[in-house]
Specification:
The structure is a homodimer.
Chain A (H helix, E strand, L loop, with lengths): L9 H24 L6 H8 L3 H8 L4 H4 L8 H9 L4 H14 L5 H13 L1 H29 L5 H30 L5 H16 L2
Chain A binds a DNA duplex through α1 and α3.
Chain lengths: 207, 207
DNA sequence: GTCGATTATTGCAGTCTCTGCACTTTTGCG
DNA sequence: CGCAAAAGTGCAGAGACTGCAATAATCGAC
């Protein structure tokens, strides 16, 4: 009888191993030479993969540097968000944080990535750009939850409101991330950090 | 005696005229065919300019679509911001709005741009990306003002705080922009719209 | 106006990113 | 094993972008 854990097939395991090898190679090269002085061919040579396959995996030159696109959050996480009754912005941030943590990135790759982001802000901007792609979907999600709790808003009002909620959440995210990394790195603390960040925003916008 | 207005030299005027011609051509093409199906060569053909010159002007294919990078705000505007004593986030938004308005973009180009953004969110993301380039500078600015008013913060606290202020301001910006365009388009109203947007954020983060 | 100096525009050659397509190799499975 | 599906690869080519050198337009002094 096979093990109960959903063991990945050979294909999946190969793919994962390869992905990590390429990401690691790309990050090392970028940290050493700077992003602009690294070519896809260099990455491919270093990680023993064909350029064509590289693009099949990552799509763009920067793909291996900024990591996989944030996956659509789990159905269960979404459900939880929709039915939660905490402060909206905090619940949304919790959703974002949890779906990020669910990707369980390699620790060393994660650290290299952060170092690189600090050195090359353009990359971080790129990643943000990609997140904006999810923007529409996220706004819809927030609107769905608002519809259940505040059904007396017009479409436009609701959309504005949802956009603002998302902006607040995304804006507070870097601060939460910094706290999380520097203070503990413990997942259970995330909720507290989120609360803290939102409280600061409240002070900022208080008259 | 020459006129009192600082009349531009022939060079400047040519450059401005050319820029607008290219931007208009690029926007028309993008609105008609979609950004991906427009090539730089097409834009150059339509606006009677050499591709090399195109890149000298705009740097990237999208440059003509998203418009010139937001210039560093006027010294006088910065001074005003630093010494204003209104709510920090609102003053910052006012600074942003005023330095945008100072660029006095063509009305029709402005409208085309907005239409295109709505149709192709990736472009808007790009523009946001470029703004992030100014992020560092803006954070410094906010910190300078905070230093005068709240001198008892540690460096890290101050930086977090400044980042949050900027996030709030940038997040609220689209809403203000929408209000401004749809409601009146009158510059004198901007302040009221900003106030309104901040008030909404306050409600959002209120427990 | 003319002329030399400055600045802008352009053509060209070349590099790099990225894509479609056809072909080969690897993997999963009966 | 042997066959079908999936993944990896090579190749040709389009398109974005850059450095450099040549050309053209503008400016400022005379």
């Amino acid at each position: 009888m096979p093990t109960a854990t959903p063991v990945l097939g050979l294909r999946e395991r190969n793919r994962l191993r390869r992905t990590r090898r390429v990401e690691r190679a790309a990050l090392e090269l970028a940290l050493e030479h700077g992003v602009d002085h690294v070519t896809v061919d260099m990455i491919c040579e270093a990680s023993d993969i064909s350029p064509r396959t590289y693009f099949n995996y990552f799509g763009t030159k920067e793909g291996a540097l900024i990591g996989p696109a944030p996956s659509v959050p789990d159905e269960s996480l979404i459900e939880e968000f929709l039915h939660a009754r905490g402060p909206l912005a905090e619940d949304l941030m919790l959703l974002m944080a949890r779906s990020f943590l669910a990707t369980a990135p390699d620790r060393d790759i994660f650290v290299m990535r952060r170092t690189l982001y600090a050195r090359e802000p353009a990359l971080q901007a790129l990643q943000m750009t990609r997140m904006v792609g999810k923007r529409q979907a996220t706004v819809e999600l927030v609107m769905r939850r608002m519809a259940e709790q505040l059904p007396d808003l017009t479409e436009t009002e609701a959309r504005d409101e949802a956009q603002l909620v998302m902006s607040v959440a995304m804006g507070a995210f870097p601060v939460v991330s910094r706290l999380w990394i520097e203070e503990s790195g413990d997942e259970s603390e995330v909720e507290a950090y989120i609360h803290e960040a939102i409280a600061r925003i409240r002070r900022i916008v208080s008259p």
